[in-house]
Write a structure and sequence with these properties.
binds FE2/S2 (inorganic) cluster; 166 residues; 5 strands
């Protein structure tokens, strides 16, 4: 590792609504900062090359790859992991639908799927199945439960749209 990646950077951000201050090595990836430094192990590290989506978290409103983002980039940012989205009940309808539709097997991909799928909840008109698949295409499920995952996301989108209209 070069010296520039060992250099320390001070950052202040919010994680799951809580202020966090830290001094991180310049080369520390967000997924490692969350898992190893903050103990937030909901988002997973798998390919670590931006391919599988297991490390997906929300940064300033967007679902991003934790393995392609440096913690040092996040001074002043707002980060939400699956733990925070779960604690605030923001993804409860999605979580319930995943359970009801058997959309999780080993569950390794599920946190990333939930964070990615949550982005769709505000889209109008409701995306069709092809658009749901396209949106989740960057998230791999090694258990290959894709059909049930799309079922769960589609159920959630329709439920939320019905509630909006009620
Ligand atoms: S671990 Fe980040 S995309 Fe696979
Ligand atoms: S449920 Fe096992 S990887 Fe998706």
């Amino acid at each position: 590792m070069s010296d520039s990646f060992r250099a320390k950077v001070d950052i202040a951000l919010t994680v799951n609504g809580e202020p966090v201050e830290a001094r991180v090595p310049a080369g520390r990836h967000l997924i490692d900062f969350l898992r190893l430094d903050l103990g937030l192990t909901g988002a997973h590290a798998s390919c670590e090359h931006g391919v599988c989506g297991a490390c997906t978290v929300r940064v300033d409103g967007d679902a991003v790859r934790g393995c392609l983002t440096l913690a040092a980039q996040l001074d002043g940012s707002e980060v939400w992991t699956v733990e925070g989205l779960s604690d605030t009940a923001e993804i409860r309808v999605l979580q319930d639908a995943f359970v009801a539709r058997n959309a999780l097997q080993c569950g390794f991909c599920t946190p990333g799927m939930l964070v990615a799928a949550q982005e769709l909840l505000h889209r109008r008109p409701i995306p069709d199945r092809a658009a749901i698949r396209e949106h989740l295409s960057g998230n791999y499920c090694r258990c290959t439960g894709y059909e049930a995952i799309v079922d769960a996301v589609e159920d959630t989108l329709r439920k939320c749209a019905d509630e909006d209209m009620a």
